[in-house]
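Extended Data, panel c. Modelled sequence:
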Amino acid sequence: MIRIKDIADQVGVSATTVSNVLHGKQQRVSPETRRKIEMAIREMGYVPNMGALMLAKEQSSIIGVILFDKGSRNEPTLTDPYYGSLVGYLEQYIRDRKHYMLMLTVSNVEEIIRQAKAWNLDGLIACNLQPDVIRHLYALYPSPLVSLDAYLENKESYINIAVDDFGGGYQMGRYLAAMGHRNVLMISDNDQGVDRQRWLGLKKGLEEAKVPVSDKQHLLVSNISGERMVQYKRYKELFRKQTALFFSSDYYALEACSALRETGFQIPEELSLAGFDDLFCSGLMTPKLTTIRQDIEQKARMTVDALFCLMEGGEKRDWVLPVELIQRESVRRV
């Protein structure tokens, strides 16, 4: 194993000088000496002890990414393709900032705080947590924190990155109405935050097109996959009274498409389907899914930029990203 002393002997400097370069205290070392040390580090294959580096820098260079645990009866959160894409892009942009990502899948705020303190995290990114959880977290956690897709009051106190969920629902409502649909049902697993905004947008879009809408047209299903699949089959007669179903996510639309076909529906001949997100797989299913596209990569990049701006003393502000209607084959004109 290559030691700091070995590098110092190779370059002809003290171990303290090598340590200064490794720990970022480069103002104490001349540019020429620093260049020689960095070259020796590469050529000799020195691997630094991350624990020692963290102690020396008095910071961890670790960013925590929080995902909410759906419970032991459900699949891990990352089985949802949306979260897989989001976390992948977050890791990429955190790494570009010379930091490391620690993913925390937790079920309560106290566990988040315990983990954050144990790892001495430089900052936190909280993904899709409910408003009461986010407020509690902001109150207890002193380090920089950015939330994703949280709908919070007193916005000036927080940094939140979101897409135009209401606008996306509105675009879908106008589009379905223009395609002749008068019996539209939205399906999601809750009526809060993101899903609430998408429903309100859909409702407004339909109403502006003179399509009557009631709250009964927002159907809530289980957040547990196995239970949802049973419900999709149980609601067969309700679905036969509709001409289109709008799901709060592409993931739900994709799994429902499979369940509905098993019960005898022809998609889109008998029932049109639409989703929200525009996941990579949404253009691969048959029929290809009509959806609302959000730019997940841009969302991740802006989240990391916002967090590092906050870590460097920048101002708090919200970002709302635009969305786009993607017309494909799963919605037919009636």
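The radius of gyration is 25 Å. This feature is highlighted in the accompanying rendering.
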